[in-house]
Amino acid sequence: MNIQINSDYTPDALIVGGGIAGLQSALDLADQGLKVLVVERNSSIGGHMIALSKVYPTLDCASCITTPKMSSAAHHPNITILTNTEVEAIESTDGTHRVRLLQKPTYVNFDRCIGCRLCEYACDTEYPDPFEQGLGTVRAIAVPFTNAIPQKAILDAEHCGTCGTCARVCPTDAIEFDQQPRSLTIRTDAVIVASGFQLNAVTLKPQYNAQRSKNIIAPLALERLLAPHGPYGRVLRPSDGKIPSSVAFVQCAGSRDESIDIRAFGKGYEQFFQNAKAMGISFVRGKVARIHPVDGGDLSVHVESIEDAENPLQEHRHDLVVLAQGMVPGWNPSDSTPVACASDGFVATPMLTAPTCTTAPGIFVAGTAAGPKDIVDTIAEAGAAAMQVSQYLYQKRAAVLAS
């Protein structure tokens, strides 16, 4: 449920982030009878996973996995969800954490909004859709995406033309142009940091010329092209709508420069790699020196091959290039919380035997907030973090009763 709460609301645990890690931890704790508050900075829960087409290596539908968890969390009586909300600071004293939150205005009264989307249909202002990685457009007031939770309209003040059309067509008078940011402080006994990740910019390496071609894209943009509910309904080249016949993937683009081979370390990963080669996918071990646009919107990829000694300098022409960027932390808690970060910027986990414990008692971490990992490990770690919180709360309350 997504409701307005006051500072006297005291959940047993607060979770920073409503992606797959945060949702899994919330559900595991809520099923034990604990009250959980999930704080999500975006307009919908689901994180990056809800935007994916399929998951690796089983190629199961990502939405089919994520949407039920989103729905379960939204309807669970022990879970409260706050979207469009930032964590500004966490102060810890005597085992109690005071979490200062900032709720950003949506300019729509969620209690009145029925998700009919009449305001969206009436709006004539569009801008590049961040959920679609800029490949499609979205109206200035709209439900964030098809299976967003909550299914409530959000007005983007930066792009709104203030024509008032949305307010005139709204059947429940839900539009509130005078909404202001709202600050509140929540007290809780435990916190899980599940703030996820971001990707390096595709323009990080200037020699790849991503700024010069729309056909050099990020992997999350490719996921939206592949998704059945994506911007085009099929894979089309962004510059001209051409169906690409040749696609190049540049691995570790801007995240690592060592000359290494494929790392297929997980269960089923090596078999996936072998199946990909059997399907005709060519894996070239080497370094991409530069990429530059050529006539017709195609791209010339210059590669220094490690395996081909007779022809080490190669040039390949492709319709589309995907830069697989490196992960960086989605949030830096060390600036405003007792939690320390490691040298790579991710949350530090000093105990090898307890990978969800941070440097701050009562504050735990799950998923890619602690470092890059796949979905399977993220979900497993989220469950571990929930159990750590449960154990911590039990021991804390047992000590209070004993005293």
* Architecture per CATH nomenclature, i.e. the level-2 architecture of the largest domain: 3-Layer(bba) Sandwich
The quaternary structure here is single chain
Largest sheet: 5 strands, parallel
The end-to-end span amounts to 36 Å
Compute the average pLDDT: 93
Can you tell me about this structure?
- With 403 residues, the chain is an alpha/beta fold.
- It has 2 domains: 13-104 and 181-198 and 328-402, FAD/NAD(P)-binding domain, CATH 3.50.50.60; 201-325, FAD/NAD(P)-binding domain (3-Layer(bba) Sandwich).
- The protein is built from 7 helices and 22 strands.
- It has helices at 20-30, 62-75, 118-122, 165-169, 219-226, 269-278, 375-402; strands at residues 13-16, 36-39, 54-55, 60-61, 79-82, 85-93, 96-103, 126-128, 137-139, 141-142, 154-155, 182-188, 190-193, 197-199, 216-217, 247-253, 286-293, 299-305, 313-318, 320-325, 327-329, 363-365.
- The strands form 8 sheets. A 5-stranded parallel beta sheet has the order 5-2-1-13-22. It has a 3-stranded antiparallel beta sheet with strand order 6-7-12, with no helix packed on it. A 3-stranded parallel beta sheet has the order 15-20-16.
- Helix 1 packs parallel to helix 7 (375-402).
Question: What descriptive keywords fit this protein?
Answer:
globular; FAD/NAD(P)-binding domain; 2 domains; 403 residues; 7 helices; 22 strands; 20% helix; alpha/beta
